[in-house]
Amino acid sequence: MVGERRREISRLTRQNSLYIINLWVLPTISGLASTQRAGFGFKPGNIMPHFNDYVIDQLIAPAFNLFFLIGGLAALLIGIGLVFKSPTVFRLFDILNHSVSTRTATKPLAIPRDSSQYFFKHRLPFGVVFVVGALYADYGLLTGAGNAAIVSLFNTTLPPGYVFWIVESVRYFLLVSCTVSIIVGILLVISPDTLKDVENAGGRWVSTRNMALGADKMNLSFDQWVAAYPRTVGLIIAFPGLGMVLYFGDQLLRQS
Fold this sequence. Notes:
This protein is an all-alpha fold. It has one domain. It contains 10 helices and no strands. Helix 5 runs antiparallel to helix 7 (160-190) and helix 7 packs across helix 8. The longest helix has 37 residues, at 2-38. The radius of gyration is 29 Å and the shape is flat.
């Protein structure tokens, strides 16, 4: 029985490898080549022709093009404003340019909270729950419905072998997790000091506040450069913005 199951898994693995190559790798390569020939832009069917469905055609592609159209329009207006009405644009920047620090709001998240004392104080009930629950889960995973029966419940267009491979992987992952839970539960009951040593070895607190110190300070060097050369910066921003408006606007019109 075990040998037959291993041969079945090996066969499905080879089948899934060919499936992934045919479904993702080859279409991606051909799609990238066609994208390079056609120019930049998100065009449905270029990169993932096999997934050219309603979601991509009607949601992702229009949202992508609309996002860059709005960004290009904003860049065009700001560039024109810097060229002809720079004082007005600078007053607008002064209104919008506020520094918002997240260090105060996220400080409670950076404080370590040790719950192990309560955990070890009630180690017997926790240990029993871990062992009993994991044993019950292992029993269900080993003696429950087979993977073929589970695959038949999914209403999907993916090949059954591919779904079978995913279900089998999840089953083994849960089996390993339940086995670890059984070991932890037994250690809680008979040898809590061993579990404490493992926790002390791996339970190290790493705070990102020190690493990110100074990252929330305002850097106004770019603003000062824009204020010194408003017309030059305005032209640099306006022309790419105009190109984005024309290109992505045309893409939206073609998709409508």
